[in-house]
Amino acid sequence: MSTLSIEGLSWAVEVRRGAPRWLLRGIGLQVNEGEFVGLIGPNGSGKTSLLRCAYRSTTPARGHLCLDGEDLWQRSARWSAQRIAVVLQEFPQEFGLTVKDVVAMGRAPHKGLFDADTSEDARHVAQALEHVGLSTYAGQAFATLSGGEKQRVLLARALVQQPGLLILDEPTNHLDPRYQLELLRHLRGLGLSILASFHDLNLAAAFCDRIYVIAEGEIVARGTPAEVLTAELIEQVFGVKALVDRHPLHAYPRVTWIT
Q1: Global confidence as pTM
Q2: What angle do CA 90, 46, 236 make, to 5 degrees?
Q3: Which of 146, 207, 140 has the alpha carbon at shortest distance from 174?
């Protein structure tokens, strides 16, 4: 388990014949050991840009990002890859690879350039596929899988990295309701520190310890699901009316859209 600390993070894109366009401004965010933190906000609010900075895909213009007290940008990409695993919405080009091949790619940060796969690597791959319920798919071509199955394979690839922090961009995007719940329950049980963006506010409410709300590149609210998911905030940030009450079977809030 790892801790992630982001302070004063800002990022801009260059604009011809004009000032930079700031897409992230003064972001502060904390993920504690073993904590499941959600990031919500409307399309274009900066969720994916913030995650890209957190896993070192995009260099911020200002601010500090620390993993376990270490400045991410003062350490190597390999050091980060040994500690942070990422699951994105897009599927990789598989080039004829099998499911097992794709999952085994997650072992790369722990191996030298010319190191062959070992029995330990094979064990990690087999365990990860079992965790996501795809053991019988190991020899199948990745390209033949459904979107939901591919998403579970990519989670398995992330798990074999043995990360302390897992970052996910819309992890349930390609999944039907059954596998959405199964995946999130599984993530909760991993004991990892997790930062994940969500479109579905009810899933964020059900599974996150804390939630950050981002709008127009700034964090506008943070706290537990009950503290953050209010009808007033939802209307302010998302521009729609909602009824927010307590889930009849659990303590977390439930959001019902008013049409």
Answers
A1: 0.90
A2: 125
A3: 146
Domains with residue ranges and CATH for the chain: 1-83+164-230 (3.40.50.300), 93-162 (no CATH)
Q: Tell me the mean pLDDT in the region 215-243.
A: 96
**How confident is the model at residue 15, as a pLDDT?**
63
Dihedral angle over CA of 52, 31, 65, 165, nearest 10: -60
Instruction: Render pLDDT for 79-131 as a digit per residue (tens, 0 to 9).
Output: 999 899 998 877 766 678 899 999 999 988 887 666 677 888 889 899 999 98
